[in-house]
Design brief:
Layout: H1 2-18, E1 36-37, E2 40-45, H2 50-56, E3 60-67, E4 73-81, H3 93-99, E5 103-114, E6 120-130, E7 133-143, E8 146-148, H4 151-164, E9 170-178, H5 185-204
Antiparallel strand pairs: 1-2, 2-3, 3-4, 4-9, 5-6, 6-7, 7-8, 7-9
Length: 210
């Protein structure tokens, strides 16, 4: 805990004093993200209100609904930040989801293999519930070649990359999958979320630079 507090203070100081030296790589706008993603087709797009945009403080964002031919649907949200400084950083789902009245439980981690450096690529899964409705929420932090589930390690890697690479750019990626009815409904929702996550990760690096 002490190390985390010291590291967080160091990050705040470094980004405030040295942020102008950041090297932000070229990227495609999320507005150009494909409407067809593997077996998934965009069926809707959402826009945030002016107040939500001010609160989010992202440089780019994407909010869409995709569906496949089986009738499975997922809600995709991506918030991209070119620089995480001056309080312009990710809003953790650990705060946002409960803040919207949903409870979070049954945490799982899913691995998507390792980088050549041996760093594991993991994403979170939570069961979220509100007023009798149940969904699965998947989220992770992506950028600078990393896919990180942990809020803690996301901050640590930001410090490391800021000092070594001169970069703090990255994105929060969140996928919500409704849970239907039936004994295997949650398992099916999990399969849907992981299938979509794999297809998404395969192309997202064009919009969230590695």
């Amino acid at each position: 805990m002490i190390f985390f507090l010291v590291a967080a203070a160091a990050l705040t100081h470094y980004l405030t004093s040295a942020g102008e030296r950041e090297q932000v790589p070229a990227r495609n706008s999320l507005a150009d993200f494909p409407a067809q993603l593997g077996a998934w087709r965009q069926i809707d797009a959402q826009s945030l209100g002016a107040g939500q945009v001010r609160e989010l403080k992202a440089d780019d964002y994407l909010s869409r609904t995709y569906a496949n031919q089986r009738g499975d649907s997922v809600y995709l949200f991506v918030a991209y930040y070119a620089s995480q400084r001056h309080r312009q950083t990710f809003h953790s789902p650990q705060n946002c989801i409960p803040g919207s009245g949903w409870s979070m439980s049954n945490h799982r981690l899913h691995s998507f293999g390792e980088k050549q450096t041996g760093e594991e690529r993991q994403i979170n899964e939570y069961l979220i519930e509100k007023d009798g409705a149940q969904m699965l929420a998947f989220y992770w932090y992506q950028g600078r070649g990393r896919i990180v589930a942990s809020d803690y390690w996301g901050r640590i890697y930001t410090i490391k990359d800021a000092m070594i690479l001169g970069r703090t750019d990255g994105a929060l990626v969140r996928i919500i999958v409704p849970i239907g009815r039936g004994d295997d409904a949650e398992t099916q929702a999990r399969t849907t979320g992981l299938e979509f996550s794999r297809d998404l990760i395969a192309v997202l690096s064009n919009y969230v630079p590695g």
